[in-house]
Amino acid sequence: MRLLRKLKKSMGNEYEWGINPVQDVLLQTLMLGGDIGNPAYKEDLYKVFSYILENYLKNQGDVVYLDFDVVDIDGYYTLVGNNIITALWLSGVLPDNPTAVMEANKCIVGEWKFSFNIKSKTLKIQNIK
Questions:
Q1: CA–CA dist 32, 28 (Å, integer)
Q2: What is the rounded average pLDDT for all residues in the chain?
Q3: Residues whose CB falls within 8 Å of the CB of residue 4, separated by 6 or more in sequence, listed in order
Q4: Which pLDDT does position 17 carry in this prediction?
Q5: Cα–Cα distance measured from residue 28 to residue 22, given in angstroms and rounded to the nearest whole number
Q6: 68, 101, 108, 19: CA torsion to nearest 10
Q7: Three-state DSSP class for 117?
Q8: In whole angstroms, what separates CA 109 from the centre of its chain?
Q9: Residue 125 and residue 10: Cα distance in Å, rounded?
Q10: What is the three-class DSSP state of 50?
């Protein structure tokens, strides 16, 4: 697994530049006045995220798993992964074998177990140590 260093920080409220390139792009976009809530902007986000992922993934074809929505919750925009792989990627975790993770709908990285609730589109994280 790559991009997992400092997992707690990249998934929590504390932001640190350079840990998760997806979060970095979102922050930079907002700082430059980009409107990620605009539905037309989703295609641009998809292209940028695809480009980033293609530079990190062992198999560039795995980018087909990228599937997310931009959701407005009381004026705050959230990116919601529509599958476990996208949810992990948005959290800064890049599994070595996305196909196996998709099939199992779970994975273990170090001391963390990740599972995905398909109905609520939430990533569950458990410390297993």
A1: 6
A2: 83
A3: 92, 93, 109, 110
A4: 60
A5: 10
A6: -40
A7: strand
A8: 15
A9: 13
A10: helix
